Amino acid sequence: MRNTNRQTPLSQSTAPSLESFCQSMVDQEQYGVLDLGGGQTLVTWGSGEVITEQIDWRARLRTSSSREARPWSSGWMGWISYEAGRTFEQMPEPIAGLPLPEVCLWRHEGALIHHSQTGIWSIEGTPRFQREAEYRLD
User: Fold this and answer.
1) How far apart are CA 97 and CA 101, in angstroms?
2) How far apart are CA 75 and CA 28, in angstroms?
3) Is the pLDDT of residue 7 over 80?
4) What is the pLDDT of residues 63-118, one digit of tens each?
5) What is the C-alpha separation between 108 and 77, in angstroms, rounded?
6) Cα–Cα distance between 58 and 3 in angstroms, integer?
7) pTM of the entire structure?
8) Residue 54 gets which letter from DSSP?
9) How far, in Å, CA of 19 to CA of 23, rounded?
10) Which stretches within 14-126 are classed as H helix?
11) Cα(61)–Cα(65) distance, rounded to whole angstroms?
12) CA–CA gap between residue 74 and residue 125 (Å, rounded)
């Protein structure tokens, strides 16, 4: 059974497993998976702004997030490399060029949360994200 905050049930036999859903997302850009602990795994993707430059990325994150937003509907996902630490502490310059940006953060509007003990998916986020998640789960 799939559980969304809109209470749209789907029989558990038709809901995809976490593994098959993640496999279907392999070609999706701006895609991330987090282990939330307690048998919950968060899957999200973005389609908006992407930050790949060091130029004051921390301020951009602070000014673009809203505490008033629905859970998981106004966040950022991505990575900050070890070398990005130069923005807030003194570090030596890298010896060679890096194959990836030092910062890569993307905007997301929601999250799918898989509950491993029950196989249920919960959908959180904006109405647009919820519609896209429903489509991807079907």
Assistant:
1) 10
2) 18
3) no
4) 777 677 666 777 788 888 877 777 778 888 777 777 777 788 888 889 999 999 99
5) 7
6) 34
7) 0.74
8) -
9) 6
10) 18-24, 57-64
11) 6
12) 8
